[in-house]
Design a protein that fits this description.
The chain is mostly helical. It is built from five helices and no strands.
C-alpha cells in the first residue's frame, strides 16, 4: 500500500513538474523538489532491485535538479538553462520508459 501511494505521488509531482509553462515557475520549483524527494524515497524502497539503468535515471533526475538550481543562481549565463532544458527532456524520456516497462510488469501479475 505504501509503495502504491508513493508511486502515485511520484507520478502526480512528475506531471505537475512538466507542466511548467501552464503552472508557472514557482509551482514548477515546488513540484520539482517534491519529485526529487519522492524519487529518492522510491529509490530507497526499491534499492535491492536497482541496476545501472535505474541509477542512470536517478542520476539524470538529480543532474536536472542541480542544473535548474544553478540556472536560477546564474541567470546571466544562458548556457546553464539550455543545459537544464536538454537534461530535463532526457529525464522525461527516461521516466516515461521506466513507467511503461514497470506498469506493464505490474499489470501482467
Amino acid at each position: 500500500m505504501k509503495a502504491r501511494v508513493i508511486n502515485i505521488l511520484l507520478l502526480l509531482s512528475f506531471i505537475v513538474t512538466i507542466m511548467a509553462p501552464l503552472t508557472g515557475i514557482m509551482v514548477h520549483k515546488m513540484a520539482s523538489l517534491c519529485f526529487l524527494l519522492f524519487s529518492l524515497i522510491h529509490t530507497m524502497m526499491y534499492r535491492k532491485q536497482m541496476n545501472g539503468k535505474r541509477f542512470l535515471v536517478l542520476g539524470s533526475i538529480i543532474l536536472a535538479f542541480l542544473s535548474g538550481i544553478f540556472g536560477m543562481i546564474y541567470e546571466e549565463v544562458p548556457m546553464i538553462l539550455a543545459f537544464h532544458k536538454a537534461i530535463s527532456i532526457g529525464v522525461v524520456f527516461f521516466v516515461a520508459i521506466h513507467i511503461f516497462v514497470y506498469y506493464k510488469k505490474i499489470k501482467m501479475k
